[in-house]
Specification:
Elements lengths: L34 H12 L2 H12 L4 H19 L3 H7 L3 H4 L1 H4 L5 H34 L5 H21 L1 H26 L19 H18 L5 H5 L9 H30 L6 H8 L5 H30 L5 H21 L3 H30 L5 H4 L6 E2 L11 H16 L9 H5 L6 H16 L14 E2 L8
Antiparallel strand pairs: 1-2
Helix pairs in contact: 1-9, 1-12, 1-14, 2-3, 2-10, 2-12, 3-10, 3-12, 4-12, 7-8, 7-13, 7-14, 7-15, 7-16, 8-14, 8-15, 9-12, 9-14, 10-12, 10-16, 14-15, 16-18, 16-20, 18-20
Length: 495
């Protein structure tokens, strides 16, 4: 067997310098990551309070232990099966999923994915920093009598965001290393947490009909399945290509990459969600919220592990979402560098954290956010998967970069850079999804027809694909015709 290359990207990669690539195509010589690196990223980045809080949300809806567990686990399995194949976009195109989707939406139409990616990542970045900051400040309050003041929380949020920004700026190599370290640390913390609260976990804890978020069991259970289960994997629809573009399709099969992505997603999401459900049952305090309730109920010896969870878990998750946001904003605004884009989105996310902490109701805001973004992301993902099936997931790498290089033409130019059937189908699927949302703040007419059940994941995807197939039924060719590529006047080519 020959010598296997360095599993981290690029023979010239330097830990002391920011990653040089934005959304340009990764050269084959630098595509040295392996499928197991994908598992490390997805597990290490997700074993933190961000996803632990989603387990608590299921209990906060009034569900008992087993109902909350089945809703979150079933939703995660469904979502992972749907999202994992999107890892092929980055693997086969050499760029991130947003730019790769230009093969189906057009080189300008792929801005839909970039905007969705920025919104998804911004929201999850805010939840991550909020939950991690809460854990750090609340733990220090008990350990060293640090006052739980607004100033303390603001400083904690800012420091976490700054550290995550640094990791994201230095790029993929740092993210892999960070999450390789985070995974075993967070696994130990979760095991210690189960030991700390084992006597308080009531495995027979029933659901509370008087507290059902949507008034009855099945609508509430399905709300939990979508918002705390399916939404987890769906949040990665545009992220997987950020990492798989560094995997060589000549050395690793698509099957191994999809399998590793699915495995990492399930393990990385189910474990913290289950921990969140179990500890929420043990420490549930509707007035304090999850993190504060956990800290106040924890034995003194478990405060340091909570502090570690708040810091390490938040850095792992916020690092990958900031990295993704920087890439997506770089794709939306090609004049900005990836580093400048990353810093800009980090500042925006911190603003949302402050609003979530000091202005909005965090629980209701998180639920509404994940339902709306799931409704927008699902039809895009479903149409992209349909396009991959039609074309065998083959891409023309140079033609995907036309917009980034400020040129016209190419195989994916379609109509002025937009594939109108795909764009229209996405809009229809998103509208149907939004009308299918059911939460404590809004119930759409389609959800109302379904007895208050949130069916947005299923209806948005089905409507988007059905509309796409209908609009392209007489299209003949399954790929856009090749056309001459021209540069805009005075526009230099951009990597």
């Amino acid at each position: 067997m020959g010598h296997e290359p360095d599993p981290l990207p690029g023979p010239e990669a330097d830990l002391h310098a920011p990653e040089k690539h934005g959304v340009d195509t990764i050269p084959e010589a630098e595509r040295t990551a392996r499928p197991r690196d994908l598992v490390a990223i997805l597990v290490g980045a997700n074993l933190g309070f961000t996803n632990i809080v989603f387990g608590w949300l299921a209990v906060s809806y009034g569900l008992g232990l087993w109902a909350a567990l089945t809703a979150t686990v079933a939703g995660t399995l469904i979502g992972a099966a749907f999202v994992a194949p999107l890892a092929l976009v980055g693997l086969r195109s050499g760029t991130n999923n947003s730019v790769g989707s230009g093969a189906y939406f057009g080189v300008r139409g792929r801005l839909i994915a970039s905007v969705i990616g920025v919104l998804l990542s911004t929201g999850f970045m805010a939840v991550t920093v909020w939950a991690g900051g809460e854990a750090i400040v609340a733990s220090l309050a008990r350990l060293v009598d640090l006052p739980e003041s607004d100033t303390a929380y603001a400083v904690g949020y800012a420091l976490l965001a700054a550290a995550a920004t640094l990791a994201a700026v230095y790029g993929f190599r740092w993210i892999v290393l960070l999450n390789r370290v985070a995974a075993p640390i967070m696994t130990v913390v979760i095991v210690l947490g189960l030991i700390a609260f084992r006597s308080d976990i009531d495995f027979s804890a029933p659901s509370d009909p008087a507290a059902y978020a949507l008034g009855s069991f099945w609508p509430t259970w399905l709300l939990a399945m979508v918002s705390t289960g399916i939404a987890g994997p769906v949040s990665f629809v545009t992220l997987t290509g950020d990492w798989t573009r560094y995997v060589s399709p000549h050395r690793h099969s698509g099957r191994s990459v999809v399998r590793a992505t699915g495995l990492g997603m399930v393990a990385g999401l189910v474990v913290p969600q289950v921990f969140g459900v179990l500890t929420a049952v043990a420490t549930f305090d509707p007035d304090a919220g999850y993190v504060a309730g956990l800290v106040h109920a924890a034995p003194a010896w478990f405060l340091v592990p909570i502090l570690v969870c708040g810091l390490v878990g938040a850095l792992g998750q916020s690092g990958i979402v900031l990295y993704s946001m920087g890439l997506d904003l770089d794709a939306i605004l090609p004049r900005l560098s990836r580093v400048a884009s990353t810093v800009l989105v980090a500042a925006t996310s911190i603003g949302l954290v402050f609003l979530g902490k000091f202005v909005w109701d965090a629980e209701e805001s998180v639920t509404t956010f994940v339902l709306v973004l799931t409704s927008l992301a699902t039809p895009w993902a479903a149409i992209t998967l349909t396009g991959m099936w039609r074309t065998g997931a083959r891409f023309s790498e140079p033609d995907l970069q036309v917009f980034n290089q400020r040129r016209h033409g190419g195989a994916y130019w379609y109509t002025a850079g937009w594939n109108l059937p795909a764009t229209i189908a996405w809009a229809v699927g998103s509208a149907v999804g939004l009308l299918s949302n059911s939460s404590t703040s809004f119930t759409g007419p389609i959800a109302d027809w379904c007895s208050g059940v949130d069916v947005s994941f299923f209806t948005s995807g089905a409507a988007g694909v059905a509309c796409y197939l209908l609009l392209t039924a007489r299209g003949g060719s399954r790929t856009a015709p090749a056309s001459r590529v021209t540069a805009e006047a005075g526009a230099p080519a951009r990597r």
